[in-house]
Write a structure and sequence with these properties.
Oligomer: single chain
Number of strands: 0
Largest sheet: none
Radius of gyration: 18 Å
Structural class: mainly alpha
Order of helices and strands: HHHH
Helix content: over 70%
Number of helices: 4
Distance between the termini: 27 Å
Mean pLDDT: 81
Shape: flat
Strand content: under 5%
Amino acid sequence: SKYGTPTIPILLAAAWILLLANQDFESLIELVNILYTFGGLIEIASFIQLRRKRPDLVRPYRVPVSSWGMLLFFTPAVLLLCALSTFASLLSWIGAIAALLSGESGI
């Protein structure tokens, strides 16, 4: 475009919003829960991976527990996040995967 406006991403976001506008509230909550679960799992995996690969990296705060301790600490959260997603419908799963693949999930 003339002013560098990202036209295609704006149109994709508008199409995604139109699709979501036709869903009932329960489906939207399921979709948000699945996306939240993916985000939480990515954060936990990133934390563990960064701690394992770059233990010498300067951080503003160091967690004073070993990697095994952190793994034990995160296990209930991971199980809860996964259990939460099992209650979602197939349509919500398809929507969440489409949002993740299109980049419209905010994750």
